[in-house]
Structure formats: C-alpha cells, structure tokens
Fold these 2 entries.
Entry 1:
Amino acid sequence: MYAQMVNTDANRVRDISEMSEEERAFQERIDRGEKIEPTDWMPEGYRKTLIRQIGQHAHSEIVGQLPEGNWITRAPTLERKVILLAKVQDEAGHGLYLYCAAETLGVSRDELIELLHAGKMKYSSIFNYPTLTWADIGAVGWLVDGAAIMNQVPLQRTSFGPYSRAMVRICKEESFHQRQGFDIMMKMAGGTPEQHRMAQDALNRFWYPSLMMFGPSDKESVHSAQSMSWKIKINTNDELRQKFVDQTVPQAEYLGLTVPDDQLKWNQEKNGYDFSEPDWSEFFEVLKGNGPCNKERLDARIKAWEDGAWVRDGLMAHADKSTVARTAAE
Ligand code: BYC
C-alpha cells in the first residue's frame, strides 16, 4: 500500500558523476567523516531532510512527555514520583536541544511548532498509544527508551555537527531512562501475581508499537538510501529493529515475561532472532492521525501552547524593554 506512495525515481540516490562540483565536494567531505556545520554550504535536500528529521525528533520528545506526565500524580511512591518527574523534565530538555539544532538550519522553533499543530509534521507513532497502568510507565522506559537509544546511539555519529552533539547528551540521559523503566518492570514482574499480570499486559501492548518506532521496513523506507549516503542516518530501519529485538528478548526472559510473538525463535545462522513484523497497516493508520491517542496528544500540545502565550508575550515585552533601555544607555 505505502510502496505505491514511494516515488522511486525522486528517491534515487544520485551517482557522484551526476553531481555538480559543489555537491561532489560536499559528498566527499561526508565520505571522509567530516562534520558539516550550519554555516557550511550544503545541498538544499540535505538541509530539508535534516529539518524534517530533527524537527520530528524534537516534536517526539515533547509529545513523549504526555503519556508519562499522565502518571506523575499517580506514581506509587514519592521516590518513583521524583524519578518520573526528572525523566519527563529531561524530555523537555531533549526537545530544546533538538529545536535549537534545527534552528541552526534556518527554521524557527515557532515555525516547526506551527507545522506540528497543523498536522503537517510528524512525531513518533509510539506516543499515540495510551499508558493505562503504572506498569506501562515501566514498559515505556524499558521498551520505548530502549528503542530510542538503539536508534540514537548511532546518530551521535551523524554528519551534521549540532545534531550529533545534541545526541551525545541525549543518549546519556536516555540510558538512565531505560534503566528506570527496567527497574519498574523488575518490581512489577517480580511482585504479586496481579503486578506480574500488569507487567505482562504492558509488554503485550507496547511490544509491536515499539518495533514500529524504527520506521517502515527497509523496502518501504522512502528516505533511508539518501539519508544514509549523507550520513544523516547511520543504519537502516530493519537493522536497528533486529538489534533491538536481539537485545530485548533476553531481558524479557530475565523478567520472566513472554514476548507476544509465536514466531519468535533464535536463528543460529543469522545470530539473531526471527520475529514477526508489526501490523504495518496499523502503523500507517497511526501516521495518518488515526491512532488511539492522536487527537488527544495534538489537542494537549495546542492547549499548552495557547495557555503559555502570556509567558511568551511577557518574555518578548521584557526583551523589547531591555533593548530600549540598552540603546538609550549607549
Ligand atoms: N513514527 O523513509 P522512512 C523518544 C515516517 S523520541 C512516525 O524510513 P526516515 C522518546 C517518516 O518520517 C523518538 N513517523 O523515514 C521521547 C517518513 O515520513 P515523512 C523519536 C515515522 O526519516 C520521549 C515515513 O514514515 N526518535 O524516543 O528515513 C520519551 C517513511 O519512513 C516513523 C527519532 O525521531 C515513526 N515511528 O526514518 C521517551 C529519531 N517511522 O517524514 C522516548 C530520529 C517513520 O516523509 N529519526 N516515519 O512524512 C530517525 O531516525 C528517522 O527519522 C526514523 C524514520 C528512523 C524514525
């Protein structure tokens, strides 16, 4: 279905012989492993792809606060509440680093947010699923942050300097997030039969949406080839999905939980697990805005933006006053 939307010609990676001198020099810098900085010359497609990917990534961080923020007031202990609060605040920070990285490419944060609110820019599909129980907060940390790290560690080596540097700090924090999620899962899975059941139920509901985080299968991925040749992406979607499954299945076994996949089987030859693909029609429905929480998430972001207007107005008024006072003093 989606393959029909893939314009293979437009997405074909051009051979070096088809490039202008400037483009060739740029590609050679990338191939040598040099970082591209905001003031360097870059092809328009490179700039646009980065704005799309970094912008979507930033949006994912701030929309990702919502399903977890939902549980701050209901965390089971003071300690858990403080940890969750810190994690949710970290996500806001990640959003800020990423919006700043995108701004170096000539787009403003306001423009990106406007596009998000108008439904013209995506955020990660995973955040359109609800967090129904406390065990879901464990599953989000363990699986969602686990998938995020798998995707983001290689992005520390991405070719665009500001993005790669933002990734270094984000990955450090994500690793704490993943561990706090696994810690919740250990408590729940090793707790009462009811807590164990909740942990299993959370795994059942978050497993396939987590696999979807890596994007469509390689044969349906529109951007991978060009993004990988520009080193905006380092691995394909399927490579990272496989690594995630290989890393996570033993963790589920350690927890005494069952991955909800009858086809899951160790494959000695490929030195990895065989596993079932997610339901891709569900993935594309979520991308189209028809997931369980798409409307709720976007409404919450828009409301937060509107409710915060007075803060932005106040800051702008203060900045204007300071400029007037400074100019008068000079
Ligand atoms: N959800 O050609 P493809 C976090 C879109 S934050 C929605 O493979 P690409 C966290 C894709 O955009 C995690 N859309 O694309 C935060 C494209 O559509 P457009 C966020 C998806 O870009 C808070 C189309 O499908 N991480 O972990 O080469 C709390 C075709 O796909 C998704 C990042 O953003 C999806 N899952 O590869 C806790 C990492 N997948 O744009 C945790 C940076 C695909 O043409 N991003 N699409 O309309 C990437 O690495 C890449 O953009 C992706 C997709 C691997 C996600």
Note: The chain has 13 helices and two strands.
Entry 2:
Amino acid sequence: MTRGRGTSAGRAGPLTDPAGVAALLRYDADRGLTGVDTSSTPGFAGRKTDGLLAQDADAGLIRRAQERLHAHSLRPDGARRALILVLQGRDASGKGGVVRHLSGSVGPHGLETTAFGVPTQEEAAHHFLWRVQRRVPPWGRIAVFDRSHYEDILAVRMHGLAPRSVWEPRYGMIREFEDGLTANGIDVVKVMLTVSQGEQAERLRERITVPEKAWKHSASDLADRLRWHEYAEAFEDVLLRTDDDSAPWYVVPSNRKWYARWAVGRLLLHHLDSMGLEFPAPAFDPAAAEEELDATTALITRP
Ligand code: AMP
Ligand code: MG
C-alpha cells in the first residue's frame, strides 16, 4: 500500500492542506469550467489506494471540525455559525457519493442532507427559495444540498419551464440570499463536480446494464446528455455570475470518485478551519467539579 513512499498522511505537503486544495479548486473565470481537466487530481499526488486512505483519515478531521462548530455555537457571546455545502453537477457526476462520504463522516446529528428534485406541488406553490430556506441549518450544523436553488436557474432554463425574464433575475436574487446567510454567520460553499463525456457515458451505461443500478436510470438523463454543450454554457453562466469571495464556487474534477470525495472533504475542512471556531470556556470551576465527582464516587452505595 505504501509503495515505499510513506502513507498519504505522511506525504501531505503544502499543496494538499485544505487551504491549498481550496486555492487550486477555486473557480477561475479565465480557465472556465471546460478548462478543468476532469481526470486530474489537483493537490493529491497519490493513487486511488492512497486517496481512499486519505479519505478515511479526513473523516475523523471532518467529524471533529463539526463538533467544534457545534461547541462554538454554544458560546455565551452569541457567536453562532453554520455552513451550507451546495453540490451541483451533471447527472452521474457523483453528487450522491460525496453526500454519502460526508454524512458517513459526521453523522446525522451534525450534518443534514437534502436532495432537491423536481419541486413538489407544495414547493411549486411557493417562492423558489422557500424550500431552500426551510433547509437552512440550525447553528452548529452543516447542511449538504444535493442540487440546490441553482436548479431554479439551470433546470428552469434548460427545460424551458419559465421564460428568461423569470430565471434571469435569479442570479442576483440568489447572490442576495447567500449574502444574507453569510452576513449572519452561515457560510455558503459551492461545489461544481465535473466529469468528462466519456466518464458520464460509462456511469450511465452501468445504470442500464447492471440490474442493481437500473433504478437510477432516467431517460431524461440521456436527453440532457445530448445537450452537453448547452449545459456547459448554463453552468458557466452560473459560475461566472454567482461566484464571490463570500460564497465561492469550486470546480472539482470528478472522473475519479475517490478524488472528488477527498477534495470536497478538504474544502469543507478549509471553510470550517477559516471560521476561527473556539470551544466555549467551561462555565464552572473544573477543580471544584472534579472534587464533587470524586465525592460522588465515594458516596455511591449499593441499594
Ligand atoms: P436527480 O438529482 O437525478 O434525482 O434528479 C433531480 C431532477 O430534478 C433533475 O433533473 C433536476 O434538474 C430536477 N430539478 C431539481 N430542482 C428543480 C427545479 N427547481 N425545477 C425543476 N427541476 C428541478
Ligand atoms: Mg437525474
């Protein structure tokens, strides 16, 4: 496994720390979405076996970082924080796998996931941000969105569900919505998973040929695939118009599932690290409390 090069953790150089990964993956308008090599592994020099090890090692870090987020939000000074991770990407780009990795790392008490599909009748009867607003996490928690309010531009535009005059102003509305969240202590981290045409074809083919995966197949995925370049343009417009230092977009090459999962975990760690989270000081006298504890031990009696 180590191939004489040490473990992945031992090799973690400056480029692979969370801040370094974030810098490498931040959306760059000059390069564009299509300028990103979908099978590259920015910030990670190892192979799949190393990547899986690194993913496992990070699971503990992510869990502890969320614990810190929760504890920080209990501070008496009212410094409340939470985080929303938005996942977008084509069909079969691996959004679900990233969600599984993160929810497996943190657990349901600290991380809530929401898959935003075609709006239900009730959702469709409301403002487009209504269903998103309801899933904004409470203080101390992380919310992971598998698709998001960005579908109210993307899906609506691509499927002609409403005229341009409806979805076009939403770039600005979404930025205002996100600004309000970040100004109130809720970080918004946005990730676009990107796969190649060939990789998407392989993954969609598996859904067609492997019986256990047939439930994932949807004819509409093929219709969407046919419009590959139109989607690329729609994604690019979203990235270009809604990327901001306060609610940044990251583009994660996702041909290698292990890389995408590791990288998104690192992005999460980076943002949690950047929050300057601190545990609350104990609101009691530890020495006195310990004496009390010892006293109880001495006093416990059998019935
Ligand atoms: P999946 O993620 O494969 O389960 O598919 C969910 C589907 O719901 C995708 O085809 C999305 O485009 C669609 N969807 C998500 N949000 C919206 C929305 N706001 N309006 C219309 N379609 C949506
Ligand atoms: Mg789909």
Note: Residues 91, 116-119, 147, 151-152, 155-156, 161 surround adenosine monophosphate (ligand 1) (CB under 6 Å).
